[in-house]
Amino acid sequence: MENMRFALLAWIAVAVCVTGAEMPASAPGSFAVDALTLEWRDTKRQRDVPAKIYFPKSATNACPVIVFSHGVGGSREGYEYLGRHWASHGYVSVHLQHHGSDDAVWRGVANPMQSMRSATMDPLNAVNRAIDVSFALDELTAMNKTNAVFRGKLDLDRIGVAGHSFGAWTTLAVAGQSVGLTGKSYADQRVKAAIAMSAPVPKIPATRNYSKITIPLLHMTGTADNSPIGDTAAKDRRIPFDEITNTPQFLVTFTGGDHMLFSGPSARRAETPQLTAMHETIRASTTAFWDAYLRNDVKAKVWLTDGGFEKALGEQGVCEKKLGRNK
Q: Are 140 and 65 in contact (CB under 8 A)?
């Protein structure tokens, strides 16, 4: 009985400490970060899958793994602000490049926007993206056994997947969203948690089948997050969050945040104090989510579930949550 009382008091102390307005993991972590580019080849599909891996240089224990999927027109070089931050906190962040919907679709073409729109409409690109993620996990499994840099350094029992825009669709597909009217699944059971930023939502309600998603998810969007090339309006980005049940779900909506917010700091547009603050929040909250649901970190989980995130967001936006049957 005394042990139970002590455990309860300890949990209360944790809750008091982490439900204030502070933002955990906002600063870079303790690890120096290195990066490695790889040119994987899926011989079964005769398809190249380029990757860039950010990793903590001096980690002695096996690190949880995150696979990141870029939006249409992107590449493995994008979203470095997330990859380096996560790696500094002890994660291995693997950024894939998806041929058919990467930067090759717009470079040197007369109508880049139309070219990217066509890439998103091609069902083969969508399917290949999901398979790319599972292929990458197979390659990482092999590397964990034989690669000089990563041998024994990848914790493949703690895998997360994240993505932006078309990459968010990829993320949801790997998490268990059924694809198209056929209901085909590309879910990968090795994935334990996921983050979907600006997820596209199918126009046909019958294809919005999220019922098989059973892992924790952090959804991120903004009030101005209208698709620049697709049909998803900002108000519809919340549909996956609304329809997924029985597992912890979080939805962050940044006030004024547009579709490119999640791409991070970029020379293509001015970095205002408001954007800088939002990018810091994205880095911190995503890291807290990984800590909570890949590392089972009690402090991070309490901050997410018991009001700390809402307080830290302040006027930046709104955080909603559905904790399912348990936290």
A: yes
Burial of 70 from C-beta contacts in 10 A (0-12 / 13-18 / 19+): buried
Q: How many Cβ atoms are within 10 Å of 77's Cβ, its own excluded?
A: 15
Tokens of 216: 């924790």
Total-model pTM: 0.92
Query: For 150, what's the count of Cα atoms within 13 Å in the CB-facing half-sphere?
Result: 25
Sheet holding 154-164, edge to edge: 33-42, 47-56, 92-96, 63-69, 154-164, 191-197, 217-224, 249-258, 317-322
- In 3D, which of 267, 289, 255 has the Cα closest to residue 158? 289
Does residue 50 sit in helix, strand or coil?
strand
Exposure string for 208-242, b = 16+ CB within 10 A, e = fewer: bbbeebebbbbbbbbbebbbebbebebebbbbbbe
Encode pLDDT of 20-64 as tens digits: 467 888 899 999 999 999 999 999 999 999 999 999 999 999 999
Angle between the 80-88 and 273-294 helix axes, to the nearest 10 degrees?
A: 50
Pairing assessment for the beta strands 217-224 and 249-258 based on DSSP bridges = parallel
CA distance 235 to 267: 28
Name residue 49's beta-bridge partners: 40
